[in-house]
Amino acid sequence: MKPSIDLFGATQNNLKNLDVSFKTGELTVITGVSGSGKSSLAFDTLYAEGQRRYVETFSAYARQFLDRMDKPQVERIEGILPAIAIDQTNPVRNSRSTVGTMTEVNDHLKLLFARAATLHCRGCGKPVTRDNPQSIAKALIHRCAEHNDPRLVVTFAIEIPANFSEEEVAGFLQGQGYTRIHGQARASTKKDQKTIDVVQDRFRLSNTEPERVAEALDNALRMGQGVLAVHAMGEDGGDEAIWRFSNKLHCADCNLYYQDVMPSSFSFNSPLGACETCRGFGRSIGIDHGLVIPDERKTLAQGAVKPWQTPSYKECQEELEKFAQRANVSLNTAWKDLPPEHQDWVLFGDPQWRGGRGAWQTQWYGVKHFFAWLETKAYKMHVRVLLSKYRSYTPCPTCHGTRLKPDALLWKINGHHVHDLMCLPISDLERWFLELRFPDTVMDGAMSLVLDELRARLKFVCNVGLGYLTLDRQSRTLSGGEVQRINLTTALGTSLVNTLFVLDEPSIGLHPKDMQRVVDVMHRLRDAGNTLVVVEHDPQVMVAADRVIDMGPGPGERGGQIVFDGTPEDLRHANTLTGEYMGSRRRVESPRPLPVAANTPRLLLEGVTANNLKNVDISIPLGRLVCITGVSGSGKSTLIENVLYPAMLKQLGKPTESPGPYRQLLGQEQLADVVMIDQSQIGKTARSNPASYVGAFDAIRKLFAQAPLARERSYTTGTFSFNSGDGRCPTCGGTGFEHVEMQFLSDVYLRCPDCDGKRFRPEILEVQVEHLGKSASIDQVLNMTVSEALDFFKGLRDVQLALLPLADVGLEYVKLGQPVPTLSGGEAQRLKLAGHLAQAARSGISQQKLAVKGSLFLFDEPTTGLHFDDVARLMRAFRKLLGAGHSLLIIEHNLDVIRAADWIIDLGPDAGALGGEVVAAGDPAAIMAVTSSHTGRALIDYEKTMTVQPTADQHRSTEAAALGRPLQRVLREPRPAAQSIDILHAREHNLQNINVSIPHGKFTVITGVSGSGKSTLAFDILFNEGQRRYLESLNAYARAIVQPAGKPDVDAIYGIPPTVAIEQRTSRGGRKSTVATMTEIHHFLRLLYMKLGTQFCPTCEVSVEPQTADQIAARVMRDHVGQRIGVMATLVSARKGFYTDLAKWASGKGYTHLRVDGLFIETQAWPRLDRYKEHTIELPVADLVVDKANEAALRQAIESALHHGQGTLSVLWSLNDLEKDPAAVLSQQHFSTKRACPSCGLSFPEPDPRLFSYNSKHGWCTQCFGTGLKLQGFDAEQTGEETAWNAWYEGETQACDGCHGTRLNPIARAVRWREQSIAELAALPVAEAHTFFTGLILKGREAEIGRDILQEVRSRLNFMREVGLDYLSLDRAAPTLSGGEAQRIRLAAQLGSNLQGVCYILDEPTIGLHPRDNQILLNALSKLEGNGNTLVVVEHDDDTIRRAQHIIDIGPGAGVRGGQVVAQGTLADIMASERSTTGHYLKNPLLHPSQPRRAVKKDTPMLSIHGAHLHNLRRVDAKLPVGRLTVVTGVSGSGKSTLAREVLLDNLVQVIGAGGVGQWYGCERIDGWEKIDRVLEVDQTPIGKTPRSCPGTYIGFWDDIRKQFADTQEARIRGWKTGRFSFNTGEGRCPICEGQGMRTVEMSFLPDIKVPCDACHGARFNQDTLSIELRGKNAGEVLSMDVDDAIAYFAAHPRVHHPLRLMQDVGLGYLTLGQPSPTLSGGEAQRIKLVTELAKARMTEGVITTGRASQLPHTLYVLDEPTVGLSMADVEKLIRVLHRLVDAGNTVVVIEHNLDVIAEADWLMDLGPEGGNGGGRLVAQGSPEDLLKKHPNSHTAQALRPVLFPGAN
Of 668, 679, 660, 656, which is closest to residue 620 (Cα–Cα)? Predict the structure, then answer.
C-alpha cells in the first residue's frame, strides 16, 4: 500500500494551492486560528474525496441516499483511502433514536433477551417455561402428594374430521393400539367438529416405573401435538382435577398462552416490539400544565391560568371564579400554595363531571375539558396555533415511556426487563454485565459472543467519558461533543483497517480528566492500521499526535497556508501563533480580573435534585465571569439548562418548559433578563451575513437612503436590501450568484451574469455614501472587511456600535457581506456572541451607571472551535460585557477560560450517580487547593505542561521545523499494521467453524467444488462485514436504504478494510438498457444536456425563446375562440410526496379543488396520495369561455396562473365534457414565459434530466416507450427487464418507426449541444466518444458547469478502453451484448473509483470470457492490486487460480459435506494437498478427448446455415452435424450467441413449431432441419420467482414424494390425500406464510424484511401436517434434505431416486430439495433444466436402443455456457452428461469458453477473429484437431493447444 495520501493543488475555500502529504497509519493533528482553513483541508478536501470515491462503488440507486460529498477543488489526490468523518453533527432527529440504538447496544440487548430471558406470567408473576416429560413428571410428583396419590389418566385430544364418524376414527385408533376414550366427545373449536380425549395410559404414580411414566408423557405430547392432560380421578370415578401441560409457552396456573419472542420483539423500532399506542416513541403529545400555569406565584384571581386571560376566552376566567366560590377554592392564594385537591379541581374539573350538551353551564369543566373542546375546533388555524402554545410531550399512557409492548416487559434477566437496563447509567450497566452469569445450558458460543460484544461496546462508551449517559437517552438531546464521542466508539467497534478517520475537535465537551481516554481510543484506531486526521485546538491532543500541521498565518483570506509541519515537540519552538501559545510565550489572560467579596450581589439556587444532582445549592456572584465546570456527566448542563434557565424564565413570566425540581431561587430581581447562548447553528441562507446579523446593515442602509441621489430617486431603506424590495438584482434574487443544481454531482455556484456578483441593480449601485472624503456604493461597502468598514464609517455612532463587537470577538477580517454558510464553526460561534454584544451596546446600558439592572448571559462551551488566540479575544469581549453591567455564567472545560475566570463552581466528583455535588467553589487558586477536585488537578498539570521552557539546544534542533514543512520532503517508512484479514471460527451457512487468513494487498482466489461455501466466505462474511462496518458510519436513513447485511455467524474478524463487491449477474440488462446506461455515462450526458443544451423546436428547427403573457393570451384567443377552457397553474410536476400542506394552502386561498394526475380533487377532503408515485398537481385558476367579452378576465387569469406556476401554465378544454363525465380525459396545451418557439409559438417544458431518459415518460418515444424497437404488446407499464422481453422473446426486433431506434421523443432529440443531439452523441463508439470528450475545451460558464461531468465521462470511457471494449457504441442495447461484454462493462463501471486500501471481492469475473479476454481482465485486476488494494476472487478458472498469490480451497464436498478449508497457500501448496480436489485437477488436468470423437463423415446429416447477417454477423455460412456434440466458441462479442441462439435456435423453434412454414429471420435459410423433431434451449433464466418454487416442484419428483406421505397409515387415518402435502395450495400448508417458509414483515418506518415464519420455522407446513412422518422425517424435514442425502433416503423409490441421481451427476448434490428458486444462480437454474430433460429421457448408464425410449424424439439442445459456477470436478461430470445426451440420439450445441468442454467437442465452430465490428466471421469449423492444424494462430487455437497436447511446445 502507498505510504501516504498526496494532495496536489488544493484550492478548496481559502486554501492557497496546497501540496500536502498525509502519512498513512499516523495520527495527524491540523490546528490553527479559526477560519485558517483547517476544516477546508481535513473535511472539505481529504474526507470528501475518500468518502465520495467509496460511495461511488455503490449502485446509482443507493448513491441517491448516501449523502455523497461534493467533489473538492483540488488538482488531484493520490492514494486516497475510504474515509469516515467523526464530527459533531447529529444527523438523527428521530425520537426513536437513542444512545442505545446509536451505539448498537440495543441490537445486542435484543439478541440477549431473545436467547436468555425468562418469561414471567402477567397473571401470577411466576416464571413460565416449556413442559417436557421430565418437567411434567416432577410436577406430577408434587401435585400427587397434595392430592393423596390419586389414580391418573394421561390423555391427548384428537379432532374428528367432518367427513368421518366417531366410530371410524375409533377404529383407526384401535389399529394403532389406542382402545380407550376418556369421557364423552366434546365440542371442538372448529365448526361442526368434535374432540375426543384418547387415553395414552392409566397408573398411580407411586407404584409406576419412571420409564413408563416418561414414555406415556412423551407419546401423549407427540400424539397431542404438544398438548396433553392428566386427569386426577376421584373416588367416584370422576375427574377430581385436570392438569394440562404443553411443550409450548403457557402458564399452567393461569392458563395463559404466550408467543415465542424474536429479537425484534424487544425493539421499539420494529412493529413487532413497538408499543402500539405511541409506536415506539415512548411519549405522546398533550397539554402541558406547566405551560398553562407558567407563573405559580400568581393567584387564580390574578390570572394564573394563562390561556383564559385573552379577550377570546375571558369568560372562562369568569366561570372559574364563579364555580370556585361554590367549591370553596381560594381565588387569592398563590397557585403553588393551593392544596393538591384544589389544583386538581382547577385542572381536571368537577370530580362529578358528567358531560353532555350544556354541561359547562352547570358544572365546572376545568382546564382538561376546555382543551378537549378546543380540539374539536382544531380545523381553524387560530385554534391550532393556540393549542400548539400549550402542548408538549408526556409519557405514553400505555407503555409509560418504555416504548415497548407490555408482553416484551414480561421477559426478564435476573429480575430486570430490557427497559430497566436501558434506564441504568452505562457505567452501572457495564458493571452489571461484568457480573452477569448464565448456566451452561444457556451459555453457548452465540451467547458468549453477544455478551462479549455488549461488554466491549459498553466499555468503549465508558472509555470516551460517556458512562453517565443511559441507553434510553434520546440522541437528539445529545451535545455535539457527545455525538462525536459516540461516533468514535462506533468507529472503534467497527474494527476497520486501511480507513481514513477524520475527526472534528473530539475534545469538545470533555473535561481534561476524560481527554486521555479519547486520546487512547484514537491511538487504538491508528495502531490497528488506520489513518487519523484530527482538527483540534486542545494541547492534550496535539501532544499525543505523531505530527501537527499548523494552518495560517491568519484567518479567512489571510490563511489557507501551512505555516508549520512537524512533531508536537518542535511546535513548541516554532515561530507561529500556535507555537507561541504551546511554548508559553503567550497565554490567555484575563485583562481585569474582578474579585468576589462577601458583599458581592449573588443569585442563589437551592435544593436542586434534577437528574443526578444531589440537593445542590449554588451561589453565583453577579457582575462577574463565573465558570461552571466539572467532569463530563457531573450535572453541569442539568443545573444550568434544565433548572436555572427555565426557572429564571418562569420567574420573568416568559413561556418555557417546566424546570427540573429545585427548592428556591433567590436574587433574580437583581437581573433584567436571562439570555442563553448555546451551540445551535445560526442562519444558513446565502443572504445571511455578518453585517445583517449584528444589525449594522440597517444603519448602513439608512445612510444610503439619505444620500442625495437616493432622495432624488425616492429610494427607501428597503431599496438597499438584498433580501426583499426592488433594488436587488432580479436574476439572482440578491444572492450575487447563480445556483446550478447538478443532481448527483456537486452543485455549482456561478457569479450572477447580470449583476456580476454585486447583488443590486446597476442604477442602485450609482448611489454612493460620502464620508470623511471617501465614497462607496452599497456593493463596495458589503465587500469591505470589518476593520475597513470601521475606518470608513469612523464617527458614525450607529454603525460603529454594531460593528465594534465583530472586531472585539476577532472577526475584523471578515467581509460585511460574506455569506454565513462560508464561515467556519469557530467564526459562526463568535458571530453569535457578537450579535449579543451588539444588542447589549444598543440597549445603552454601557452609558448608564451600574445601578441599572444587567442581564445574565449563560454560555454553553463558547470556546467550541476556537484557537488559543481566539479564546484570548473572547475573554476580552467577555470583559466588555461585564463592563456593561452584565453577569456571565459559562459552562466550560477549556482550562484557559477556567483559570481566567473570577469565580469557579466545580461539580463532581465524578459522572452520573457518582457526581451531582459541588466539589469546590472559589477563585482559580482556591480550586487548585482542593485535592479532591479533578479540575484543580488539571489546572495544576496545565500550568506545568505549558510553562516548560525549551533549552537552547532544542531551539537549534528545531529551527528547520519552524521555518517550513520539513516532513513534506521525505516520505517515511509506513507504520507496521495488520498484514492480513483474519476470520476466526466462521460458522455462517455450511462453514464448519473455519479460520482463514487473507493477506492484505495481494491477489487471493477462493475456490472449491460448487456449493462448498466459497461465496458464503467471500460475500456473506467478508464483503458484508466490510461494507456493514463502513455503513455504520453513515446516517440511519442511508443505512435503511442500502440495508447492510446482518452480522455473520463468526467469532471475530480482524484487519478488515472497507469492501467492494463486483458480483456476477448472468442477465445482460433489459430492453431499455444500453452500454451508456450500464456504465452511467448516459446519466452524466443527461445532466450535461439539461444544463448546457439548447432546445430547438422539432418542427421549425429554430431555438426556443422566452414568451410574454400577451403572446400567450393572443395564442389562446386565436386557438380556442368559443371554447370553454380551464386555465391551470402547474404547482408540482412529476414529483413524489403526499402534498397535504399544498392542499391546505390552496384551501386557505379559497381554491376548492386541485387537479391531481388528471383528476379534480377537493382540497377540503384531500386523500392520502401515494408517496412513492410521481404526481403532477395543477391549480385551477379560471373557468371561462374564450371570446372578446372575456379577454380581460382571460389576461388576468393568465397573469395569476403564471405567478402561481412560476412562469408556466396550461389550458384545458373543453370543460363541458366534465359535466357529462367527471373522469373525462381533456385536451391540454402547455405555455411558458421562459421557453417557446418564436416561429410557431409552441411552448416547451423546463429542462430536466428525465427528458433524456429512456425509462421516464418525460423522455421516451411514445411509440416504443424507450426500447427503440417495435415490440408487439410492449407498453408504458413495463420496464423492459421482464424475461418475456429478453430471454423468452421470440421474433424479429425492428427499429421503431417513431424514433428510428434513438429511443427518445422529438423534443428530447431537438435539444442540441455542440451541434449534436444526445442521440447522435450516444451513437458514437467508445473510441470516438473518448476522442470527442478528450478534445473538448470548455470556457466560462460551460467550464464551471461541465467540469465534474466531463471528468466522470472521461474516466468511464478510459476504463472501457482498458478492458478492451472501445469498439462498442454507447447506444448498443444491453440484450445484444455477449455475457463477457456485459461482465466487463460492470467491472468498468465499478473499478474506476481509484481507491487504495480497499478489499475488492469478485464473483467469478471470468464468466462469459474467452481465454484471450480473460487475460485482459486479469491484467486490469493486477493494476487494481498494484494500487494497494486487496483482491479476493471466487473462481474456478485455472488461469485465474494460477495467477493468484494466495489460494484458499474450500471443500471437500458441497453443502454440509463442505465448509472446511482443505488447503490454503500458494499454487504449489494447493497442488501438494491430498485433500484438495482443485489441487488434484491442477496437477492432473483432464485428458482429452475422454472418449473417442464421433466422426463427422460426408454422409453425416448436417444443419446448414446460409447467409447469417444478424447483429455483427458478416453473412456467415456454417454447418453443424446432427447427432453430435458441437461447441460454438470465439472471443467475447464475436457473435456466438447471435449465431447459435438467435439465428439457429429461434428459427428452428418457429419452423418446426409451424410444421415447416415460416420466414427465416437473420439469415437466408437453414437446411437439414427436417431431421430434428424438437428444439429446446436450456438457458440460465430463473426456474421460478417465488420461494414456493424449488427443484422438487420444477423437476416434478415432489409429486411422487407427496404420494408416499399420503400413503402412510396416519395420513390415511386422517383422510388426507396428496393435496394435503402441497405447500402451494390446500389446508396442509402453513396458513401464516402460505407455504413460503418465510414471511415479509412490513416495517412502516424501515424497509420491509423477510424472516423465517414464526409458525412453521421455515418448514412450510402447519403442525398437523408435520406430525405425519415418512421413515422418521416429516415433509418439512424432507424438503430441507440435500440431494446427496436424499439419494440414500429414496434409494427404494426409482421415480424419485432417478432425478436425484441426475442432479448429483450435474454437480447439484449440495442443493436442498426445497431450495427457493430466487436463491439459485443462473448456472444452477440451467443445470436443473438440464436434469428435467434428462429425467424425461429416462436414460440409464448405457445407451437405450430398445423399448419406448428408443422412440424418443430427436431433440436439438442449445446450452449457453453451462459451466457457469462449476468447479473442475463438476465440469468433468457435466461433460459426461453432455455425452450421454448425444449418445441417446440427440444433437447438442453448446456455446462455451471452457477449454475442457471445447476439447471434448465432436465439431467446433470458432467465430471471430475479434469482438464487435471486428468479429462476426467464421474463423474455422471442424474437429478441434482441424482447428489447430488449419488455423493455428486463432485465439481459440492458441488457448486450446496446451489443453489437447499438455507438455507439447
Answer: 668
